[in-house]
User: Fold this.
Amino acid sequence: MARLLDVLREQIGLTGTKEGCGEGECGACSVIVNGELVNSCLVPVLQVAGCEIVTVEGLAEMESCTPCSRRSRKRAARNAESARPE
Assistant:
């Protein structure tokens, strides 16, 4: 079964999400699924069918958001950063 990471990069063309260790330890493949930070290298793509997925490309679009949604996305980005293992 295809991993979310592979589908994002190879089929959708969102190459900002990277594969680092391939074991969910480094955080290079982190994406936000329904508001929760996950390692896309560990997630089967079928597991996230119908979910909202935010990649680094989506976070980059924050500048064009309304102030309210911009604050929400910034908060999600801060939470994602603080949840990464050291």
Q: What stands out?
A: The beta strands are 30-33, 36-39, 53-54. The longest strand covers residues 30-33.
